[in-house]
Specification:
By secondary structure, this protein is of the alpha+beta class. 40% of the residues lie in helices and 11% in strands.
Length: 653
């Protein structure tokens, strides 16, 4: 049945989209013109025989006559912010009826206006949402990736490309005949707009339904290396699991499969297993049930291979990082993890809340420290390490902090000094113990941020399953990691780059929406005149755009292009590699000192005595020496960079 209404709003209830559209070509084109957030749409191409191709490679002004082929409407506006969400379900990818119905159910639960369309005779589905306020491309990208985990038939390409992402609008003709047929009132798209927080609410729904958020990435902790596939592992020779943990590995998953898997991964990381060693057991042991399936009501349902790999990869990375932060030889039990994680999260949240209420403190400039923005970045990094390890006390050397903040070692050292108890009546952190050997200085938040009373020499237990941690912990991890990642980039840190002030402005621009010049000046401490100059450089570099209401940050990927244009790309990577070489060289030299002080060691030219250890150097080869017998540190660095220590030689954990 078709109910004819005005051209602006018609209630249509056709059962299929294979027939002739109730609208003329001109009326259909008028609907597209009304909806389109841009002045152009993309038009399908034809091949030499005249067949319409599924390639929308030409732009067509909406103010001109309709094209002779079909067209697709761009989802984002001229500012590359999404005015429309369109979930495109393709029959070649899976069950479109089930997936589109599931999405519609979630949208109805959120009371979000939407319109379902049968895209054409092939049976695909489009689910449209018209946003009241344009959504940031980064958030829509995250939304699309999370949705894909739950809805296999979804084609996320239109929502991952703000510049060219497009979908055929309602009633637009299909290249194989038929048209995009709405299964509801068109007014849900033309007159009813979804609330500004719709994208955030959908992300929360998808996460609650089982979609996995990407773990934040930071510099590798001390003693951690990456294999050829980028998976972390604790440096050192592989050892056998204890009998108890082998029984757990080859035993049942138990009532809590996620807890069982976490205990196993912690134990495997402790004995220097690699990701490939762990993944060999993925499909052969019951204990890996959590990686293969997820809870659904009272039972469990299978994950896709991609979801399984993602879950195992994320849990393995957390396990390795936690073991590196807490190198203790235990089996993986952690009876008080939840309580400890809650205490650490509470302390971190209290400190960062206090930091946010004092923008003027971080906006001032101190010649001795080089600007207290570096202090805030260092404070953020320390808080991140505490959350990652679920410990109040964390080890943090200046090289690792430099890698995660983008500031140099000298600036990091000065920031640590300024933040600590030694130089201020209102300290943020305090030092614990002293740096010794290969281990760096330990830090904790000042006691005024935490009421936790724990002995510093208490035996630390191991981590439970990270997904069971507090939701606020995951939120803080993502927020802190994002702040650090935005600033720690070649385009702001390298010599002859845009500079730290420009990076600060870029970081301070809100995740969604805009900020005015005066707002940026207040938060950054930069004068309005200087700030305008910095912003202009950011605009020229393609990192910031002027829109109605203020300035808007471009997606983070734009930094890579800007760094290449300025010929500064790769600067921080080279610095991290240099720092890692220095760290390995230092551990090598300490091992050499230990060997030299060992009694009964073998010496050149002497036969081993009965009590001499035939493996005096189980971890390092002999340190290079100069003509006078003194350690040749320059040669040692060259050997480290050449990979001399990589052949089965291990650092102390």
């Amino acid at each position: 049945m078709i109910t004819r209404m005005s051209a602006d709003s018609r209630a249509l209830t056709l059962d299929n989209a294979t027939g002739v559209s109730p609208y003329s070509l001109e009326e259909t084109w008028a609907i597209t013109r009304r909806l389109s957030p841009r002045a152009n749409v993309r038009v399908a191409a034809r091949d030499a025989s005249g067949e319409i191709l599924n390639e929308y490679d030409r732009l067509w002004p909406v103010n001109e006559a309709p094209p002779s082929t079909t067209w697709a409407m761009l989802l984002a506006d001229d500012d590359l912010r999404f005015k429309f969400l369109c979930f495109d379900f393709d029959v070649s990818n899976g069950n479109v009826l089930r997936d589109s119905a599931k999405l519609v159910h979630w949208l109805e639960q959120l009371n979000t206006p939407h319109l379902l369309c049968i895209s054409g005779p092939t049976g695909g589905r489009h689910v449209w949402v018209h946003l009241e306020e344009p959504a940031d491309a980064e958030r829509v990208l995250l939304l699309a990736k999370l949705a894909k985990q739950l809805l296999p038939s979804l084609d996320i390409q239109p929502m991952t490309n703000a510049a060219a992402g497009c979908v055929r609008p309602p009633y637009a003709p299909h290249r194989h005949g038929g048209y995009s047929h709405p299964q509801g009132d068109l007014r849900f798209l033309t007159e009813q707009e979804a609330a500004p927080e719709t994208v955030d609410h959908l992300i929360e729904v998808f996460v609650d339904a089982g979609a996995e958020l990407t773990a934040p990435t930071t510099a590798l902790p001390h003693g951690v290396i990456e294999d050829d596939n980028g998976h972390p592992r604790i440096r050192g020779p592989k050892r056998r699991l204890s009998q108890r943990m082998e029984d757990l590995l080859y035993g049942p998953a138990g009532d809590d499969p996620s807890y069982t898997l976490a205990r196993i991964l912690i134990a495997c990381a402790n004995v220097r297993w690699s990701y490939s060693d762990v993944s060999e057991h993925l499909n052969s042991t019951e204990s890996f049930e959590h990686a293969r399936t997820k809870r659904r009501g009272a039972g469990r349902v299978s994950r896709t291979p991609a979801q399984t790999e993602k879950v195992l990869t994320a849990l393995w990375r957390y396990a390795v990082n936690f073991c590196a932060a807490n190198p203790l030889p235990d089996t993986g039990d952690d009876s008080d993890f939840r309580e400890r994680m809650a205490n650490v999260t509470e302390a971190v949240e209290r400190a960062l809340t206090r930091a946010e209420t004092l923008p003027g403190l971080w906006a001032t400039h101190n010649g001795r420290v080089g600007g207290t923005h570096s202090q805030r970045a260092v404070l953020d990094a320390l808080c991140l390490y505490m959350l990652q390890s679920a410990q109040h006390v964390v080890e943090a050397d200046v090289r690792r902090l430099s890698a995660d903040t983008g500031y140099g070692r000298t600036t990091v050292h000065a920031a640590l000094t300024a933040l600590s108890t030694e130089n201020t009546s209102q300290p943020w952190i305090e030092r614990v113990g002293i740096a010794e050997g290969v281990h760096g200085q330990q830090f904790r938040l000042h006691p005024r941020f935490s009421t936790e009373k724990e002995s510093q020499d208490r035996t630390q237990a191991r981590m439970r399953a990270y997904p069971q941690a507090l939701a606020s912990t995951q939120r803080l991890l993502r927020e802190i990691a994002e702040r650090l990642e935005l600033l720690a980039h070649d385009v702001f840190a390298a010599p002859h780059s845009l500079g730290r002030s420009a990076g600060l402005i870029y970081k301070l621009l809100p995740h969604r929406g805009t900020a005015s010049t005066m707002q940026l000046a207040q938060r950054s401490g930069i004068s309005p005149q200087q700030l305008r100059q910095k912003v202009q450089r950011l605009v020229q570099a393609g990192l910031v755009t002027r829109v109605e209401g203020g300035w808007q940050r471009e997606p983070p990927t734009s930094r890579d292009f800007a760094a290449r244009r300025l010929a500064v790309d790769g600067y921080l990577k080279l610095r991290r590699e240099r720092y890692e070489s220095e760290r390995v060289r230092w551990a090598w030299w300490l091992a050499e000192i230990t060997w030299m002080e060992t009694k009964g060691k073998r010496r050149r030219g002497k036969k081993p005595t009965p009590w001499a250890n035939p493996t005096d150097r189980p971890e390092f080869a002999a340190y290079p020496r100069g003509p006078g017998g003194r350690g040749d540190h320059r040669k040692a660095i060259e050997l480290v960079k050449a990979g001399y220590l990589d052949q089965g030689l291990a650092l102390a954990a």
